[in-house]
Design brief:
The complex is a heterodimer of chains A (about 210) and B (about 575). Chain A contains 6 helices and 5 strands; from the N terminus they run ααβαβαβαββα. By secondary structure, chain A is mostly helical. In chain A, the strands form 2 sheets. In chain A, strands 1-2-3 form a 3-stranded parallel beta sheet. Chain A has a two-stranded antiparallel ribbon with strand order 4-5. Chain B is of the alpha+beta class and about 575 residues long. In chain B, helix 7 packs antiparallel against helix 8, helix 8 runs antiparallel to helix 15 and helix 10 runs antiparallel to helix 15. Classes of the chains: A mainly alpha (about 210), B alpha+beta (about 575). The interface between A and B is large, with 51 and 59 residues.
Chain lengths: ~210, ~575
Amino acid sequence: MTKDSSLQVPEEMRSQVAISNFRDLVTGALDGTYNWGRKNSIWPLMFGLACCGIEMICTAAGRFDMARFGMEIMRPSPRQADLMIVSGTVTKKMLPQIVRLYNQMPEPKYVMAMGACASGGGPFKEGYNVVAGIDKFLPVDVYVPGCPPTPQALLHGLMKMQEKIESQKLSEVRWYDDKDPVKAVPVPVLGPDLMDPRDFRKIKQGAKA
Amino acid sequence: MTEETMIASPSVLETRFPDAVKRDERAGYEGFIVEAKKLIEVATALRDEMGYDFLSSVTGVDYIEEDKMEVVYHFYRSTGGRSLVLAVQVPRKKAVVPSLVAVFPGADFQEREAWDLLGIKFEGHPDLRRILMWEGFAGFPLRKDWKEPFYVEDQKPFGNRWPGGEVHRIEDLNQYGKNVVYPKGFDNPQNWKYEEEDILYENLQKLANEGKGEFATDQVVVNLGPQHPSTHGVFRMAVVLDGETIAALKPVMGYLHRNHEKIGERNTYLHNMPFTDRLDYLSSMSNNWGYALAVEKLLGPKGTVTERAEYLRVIMAELTRISNHLWAVGFLLNDLGAFFTPSLYAIQERELILDIFEATAGARMMCNYFRFGGVSRDLPPGVLEKIKGLVNDRLPRKVDELDRYLTENEIVRSRTEGVGVLTPEDAIAYSAVGPVLRASGVPYDIRRADPYGIYDRFDFDVAVRYHGDVYDRYIIRIDEIRQSLRILQQAVKSIPEGSVLDKNPYNVRVPAGESYGRVEGPKGELGYYLVSDGKTNPYRYHVRAPSFINLTALEKMCVGQKVADVVVILGSIDIVLGEVDR
């Protein structure tokens, strides 16, 4: 449906009324084709962080075979990837590189937090070098629980990813929004501890105290 | 298992160095305490006169009560036998110990790690930088008085997770500043200068220009990793190239440093078992065994393992070795450029082994199967038959198949023969272990050299190859799979009935003392150094990771080779980053 308030149709009439907004009509027809193409050719970034990376490889291998869903082409370069599967513990030392990789991926891009560590720190949450979840820095689309998630769980996560892609609308996606262009995520700095540029003021106060 | 620390009469060391060496008198400790000033002299004598030529482990312990910092060295003979433990005690405030790198180059990374995490300075170390954390990080995390930003408590279970207690997220505690020590004059985080890279590149250039004098030519610095498809995870090699030839190489690690040791010192003893799974995540069963062994040594007669459990341990550890070596061989071919097809053959067989793990322990990779005094559960019905079918029929066939496809392959041979050679002398000096050591012609396998479990009952050979190149490191893995199958065939035939665990595995009371449990994991000697003070959690928990220490020799293997071969050489060491960085 549309966001335009002048076009509001009562609930019971919806099935009877054709939308006459031309823009919606065109993009609505395009959405299906556009999303069908995108969801069946997701190219994940070849990017294994830890244990979950091994299960990711197993998912790509013969027995579970990710290729059935059109995502067997793992790209080592972020410039060619659509999906970043954060497969493993995110450490403070690695985080600047992960954020940089994310920034280098072209839109549309998606992030999947695979496993307990990437979702929320997992068993290593209390560690001094561990970031408790990649979602503190990157927008995550799908979380896959498990330590590590079985290949079946990862496949389920990937199917959820496809569902999400299918539900997106050309007219609403952030990468075609001229008024509010997508900004790069600020790259954290390794100081006495990990320093998030967005929290610099807080850190400054803390350092003084 | 009896703890007998020296085969040679123990008094030899004391009589040789009467004023520098004395016996460790603390209850539960069996080594010698050495004066810091005489350490190099003692270590040289150990190597040259007494045959202790293999420095297995170097680590530190922070005895905060006694205001002492202790460095613990574990020496072995490369011909086999039990350990010799040396300890050097220095005051905490001025923790300076002479570096052993000149005598045992294998101490290099381990000393850097002790500096990084415990703040023990090694005088005379050629490149004493932080290794796991980054340069500029505040404090030494394994010191007992160091607290992380989200510090909760010293011991588990944490109060904030206790039912009825106040529940809050640890991220909200102590945010920014309370526990982090900022340097003097630090006011604007935006002006922070990140020095690590500069020091690294400076050291590299120094190495690359060594002995060149005025004829130094232009060189290129290339970084392989940490996000690189060939580095087997988040590992980085900073390389100086002279044309296509490697002039100098420094591994950079710590991108997966998950603070095993700090977390392990807060966990209870049993808590640590699932964490060991995540060290070398391709071979969790072997990791379990090393840790169980270390704790059982401390437990003494209370830690006796039941008969059936001993067999199950051997079966699981050997299956792990096979699955790990299959993976290693498959991905070595990946590194050679045979992208993914050989790996698919290997993964296919590995999946069958994972099925057995899943049926027995409940998880494919993180098995958490071993307990102190046994294993967590018996084999479910039908699984033993599955294992028999695998080890007697399918796996031998499939190994032969891999062998047939790869071993005589023209491209494999021309890419790997004579590449990345490590001589036996160097292998021992650099503390290389496992297939890397044995491919260099040193027949050292802990299952034979210092048997644990029931390995002395099985008939098998220690696989050895003599060229020390990548090809031998590949083929030794095929040999080892065959030997593992031999052990398995004997084990499944003679496994007795009975219970797998007699005692309650929870709430173990571990007596005070130190212990070092080591097993021959798929990647080599995996050791756990434990110090217990009689409480519910270990006072010190250190992992001697084979992948980590094998990397010490990487530079030696790579210098003078072509850049394309570096990837292959790294693949032939078979590292797993979970274990390298811990």
